[in-house]
Design brief:
By secondary structure, the protein is an all-alpha fold. The chain contains 5 helices and no strands. The longest helix is centred in the C-terminal third of the chain and has 33 residues. The model has no long low-confidence stretch (mean pLDDT 85). The protein is elongated, with a radius of gyration of 19 Å.
Length: 111
Protein backbone atom coordinates (compact mmCIF):
# COMPACT_ATOMS: atom_id res chain seq x y z
CA UNK A 1 0.00 0.00 0.00
CA UNK A 2 2.81 2.42 0.86
CA UNK A 3 4.53 1.78 -2.48
CA UNK A 4 1.25 2.39 -4.35
CA UNK A 5 0.99 5.86 -2.84
CA UNK A 6 4.64 6.65 -3.54
CA UNK A 7 4.33 5.52 -7.16
CA UNK A 8 1.12 7.49 -7.67
CA UNK A 9 2.78 10.56 -6.19
CA UNK A 10 5.73 10.21 -8.56
CA UNK A 11 3.47 9.75 -11.59
CA UNK A 12 2.13 13.24 -12.04
CA UNK A 13 0.51 13.24 -15.45
CA UNK A 14 -1.51 16.36 -14.71
CA UNK A 15 1.70 18.33 -14.08
CA UNK A 16 3.18 16.94 -17.30
CA UNK A 17 0.08 18.03 -19.21
CA UNK A 18 0.33 21.52 -17.77
CA UNK A 19 4.06 21.81 -18.54
CA UNK A 20 3.61 20.34 -22.02
CA UNK A 21 2.03 23.62 -23.11
CA UNK A 22 5.49 25.23 -23.11
CA UNK A 23 7.63 22.15 -23.81
CA UNK A 24 7.11 20.52 -27.21
CA UNK A 25 9.13 17.41 -26.28
CA UNK A 26 6.95 16.82 -23.24
CA UNK A 27 3.85 17.41 -25.36
CA UNK A 28 5.01 14.66 -27.73
CA UNK A 29 5.50 12.31 -24.77
CA UNK A 30 2.03 13.06 -23.37
CA UNK A 31 0.45 12.61 -26.82
CA UNK A 32 2.26 9.28 -27.32
CA UNK A 33 1.20 8.11 -23.85
CA UNK A 34 -2.44 8.95 -24.54
CA UNK A 35 -2.35 7.34 -27.98
CA UNK A 36 -0.55 4.14 -26.90
CA UNK A 37 -2.60 3.57 -23.73
CA UNK A 38 -5.86 4.83 -25.29
CA UNK A 39 -6.43 7.16 -22.36
CA UNK A 40 -6.90 10.85 -21.71
CA UNK A 41 -5.40 12.99 -18.96
CA UNK A 42 -4.49 11.65 -15.57
CA UNK A 43 -7.98 10.53 -14.60
CA UNK A 44 -9.97 11.52 -17.69
CA UNK A 45 -10.66 14.33 -20.15
CA UNK A 46 -11.97 16.51 -17.31
CA UNK A 47 -8.32 17.08 -16.29
CA UNK A 48 -7.89 19.27 -19.36
CA UNK A 49 -10.96 21.32 -18.51
CA UNK A 50 -9.77 21.78 -14.93
CA UNK A 51 -6.47 23.10 -16.32
CA UNK A 52 -8.39 25.33 -18.80
CA UNK A 53 -6.77 23.54 -21.73
CA UNK A 54 -8.34 22.09 -24.88
CA UNK A 55 -8.59 18.31 -25.08
CA UNK A 56 -5.83 17.21 -27.52
CA UNK A 57 -6.43 15.04 -30.56
CA UNK A 58 -4.41 12.25 -28.93
CA UNK A 59 -7.35 11.75 -26.55
CA UNK A 60 -9.83 11.11 -29.36
CA UNK A 61 -9.58 8.05 -31.57
CA UNK A 62 -9.89 9.07 -35.21
CA UNK A 63 -10.31 12.80 -34.54
CA UNK A 64 -8.78 15.03 -37.19
CA UNK A 65 -9.60 18.59 -36.21
CA UNK A 66 -11.24 18.92 -32.79
CA UNK A 67 -11.50 16.59 -29.82
CA UNK A 68 -14.55 17.03 -27.64
CA UNK A 69 -14.92 15.53 -24.19
CA UNK A 70 -17.73 13.25 -25.40
CA UNK A 71 -15.45 11.68 -28.01
CA UNK A 72 -12.39 11.39 -25.76
CA UNK A 73 -11.17 8.18 -24.17
CA UNK A 74 -13.06 7.65 -20.94
CA UNK A 75 -10.24 6.27 -18.82
CA UNK A 76 -7.34 8.28 -17.50
CA UNK A 77 -3.71 7.33 -18.08
CA UNK A 78 -2.69 6.98 -14.43
CA UNK A 79 -3.69 3.34 -13.92
CA UNK A 80 -2.38 2.11 -17.26
CA UNK A 81 0.96 3.86 -16.83
CA UNK A 82 1.30 2.58 -13.27
CA UNK A 83 0.68 -0.99 -14.44
CA UNK A 84 3.19 -0.59 -17.29
CA UNK A 85 5.85 0.74 -14.90
CA UNK A 86 5.29 -2.10 -12.44
CA UNK A 87 5.60 -4.75 -15.17
CA UNK A 88 8.68 -3.23 -16.79
CA UNK A 89 10.54 -2.38 -13.60
CA UNK A 90 10.22 -6.03 -12.59
CA UNK A 91 11.58 -7.18 -15.97
CA UNK A 92 14.38 -4.62 -15.88
CA UNK A 93 15.35 -5.80 -12.40
CA UNK A 94 15.63 -9.40 -13.57
CA UNK A 95 17.72 -8.38 -16.57
CA UNK A 96 20.04 -6.29 -14.38
CA UNK A 97 20.39 -9.14 -11.90
CA UNK A 98 21.16 -11.59 -14.70
CA UNK A 99 23.77 -9.30 -16.23
CA UNK A 100 25.41 -8.70 -12.87
CA UNK A 101 25.85 -12.44 -12.39
CA UNK A 102 27.88 -12.83 -15.60
CA UNK A 103 31.09 -11.30 -14.15
CA UNK A 104 30.64 -13.28 -10.93
CA UNK A 105 30.36 -16.55 -12.84
CA UNK A 106 33.38 -15.55 -14.94
CA UNK A 107 35.37 -14.84 -11.78
CA UNK A 108 34.41 -18.17 -10.25
CA UNK A 109 35.36 -20.05 -13.42
CA UNK A 110 38.81 -18.43 -13.55
CA UNK A 111 39.73 -19.83 -10.16
Amino acid sequence: YYHDNVLRKDINIRQAINESQTNSNLKDVVDKLQTEFECCGERGAADYHQLSLPVPLSCCPGARAVCLTDGAHKKGCEDGLETWIRENVFRTGWIALSLSLVPVVGLILTC
